[in-house]
């Protein structure tokens, strides 16, 4: 898993470029970081006034499908035996395109099972109350 470089290092690199007039490549060589990182940090400083790293990891993509959760759940409840591929086709008719895995993870997050299970016959050895 990747980890952001320290805030102290970022501040020293950006200060070397800003205050000492070093080029991005020269600052990168001095502090042993990539020149692309120096460019990103300078851009970040110009845009937000700070060089703090943003959040790492976590789910960044499920918001796209969660925005349509109501529609998906209504379709699912209307026909619970629908396969994921049939649901994808139904959603496509509404102008929504989601991958098979995206829908699978959606149902897992909402704790909805897509398995079709047969009812087991009652046990002959256990007394039913």
Automatic annotation (TrEMBL):
Any matching Pfam family: HTH_23
InterPro entries membership: Homeodomain-like_sf
Protein name stated in the entry: Transposase
Organism (species): Acidisphaera rubrifaciens HS-AP3
